[in-house]
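Quick question, first post here. What does this chain look like in 3D?
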Amino acid sequence: MGKNIIASVTITEEQFYAILEEVSVEEARIIAGMMRKKIDEELKEKTPIEYVDLSERVLKILQEAKIITVGELLQYEEDIAKFRNMGPVGVKEIKEKVFDVYKKQKA
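> Answer (accepted):
Ran it through. Tokens below.
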């Protein structure tokens, strides 16, 4: 019985289609789903914070803290209250509009 292996590789378009010729339709769907999820994760991580519906005040605080992308912001979940001028309203806004949304998408 074979083992499941998850790897991150880069292949050409020709290699991709050659692989698809060798797998069943169901296996192709699984592969496509895994690729889509990985792409979605990478895009989310690179999304500029300006694209999230945050108030101008919160955006300014994050910019002053040198937070540029959603991925960077997600790394500070426990520490956002420590950002200069970040109050409970800003913490709540970030929690509702970033952490809760992106964690739900990841699950």
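The chain has five helices and no strands.
Residues 13-43 form one domain.
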